[in-house]
Amino acid sequence: MATYRSTDGTVWRVKVSNVGASNAVVLFQHPAGESTRKDRYNWYLSRGPEAKSVTGRLDPKKVADALTGDEGDLLFRRSMPVSRAGSLPNGPLPARAPRPETGTA
Questions:
Q1: Looking at residues 77-99, what average pLDDT do you find?
Q2: Residues whose CB falls within 8 Å of the CB of residue 82, separated by 6 or more in sequence, listed in order
């Protein structure tokens, strides 16, 4: 499995999935590993010859190997959290707004 070292020194595991002809999902897994709250993801977009072929597929290993240097830094900087911070699973639903009273004469 490939790794990526962020500017703060954290070594992230890199997993490539959902591979298509011109793109793939790159998942940066946090080393703590107790939950996915710290994991991040981004889309890798290829401009290679396989991107022009409807039957072509990117190789996940080649995508992971390509994430070095500036391209890896840019992809990580623009990555998004996998889960929303502050969202509680099975938390209480917000209260419904009261219905306006209809007066009948």
A1: 73
A2: 27, 36, 37, 39, 40, 41
Query: Burial level of 20, CB count in 10 A (0-12/13-18/19+)?
Result: middle
For range 24-31, the mean pLDDT:
92
For residue 48, the enclosing domain spans 2-81
pTM of the model: 0.71
Give strand pairing partners of 28. Answer: 14, 40
DSSP secondary-structure letter at 9?
Answer: S
Distant-in-sequence, close-in-space partners of 23: CB < 8 Å, separation ≥ 6: 43, 44, 45, 46, 58
For residue 9, being part of any structural domain is answered with: yes
Query: Is the pLDDT assigned to residue 105 strictly greater than 60?
Result: no
The rounded distance, in Å, linking the Cα atoms of 46 and 25 is: 11
Q: Are 23 and 46 in contact (CB under 8 A)?
A: yes
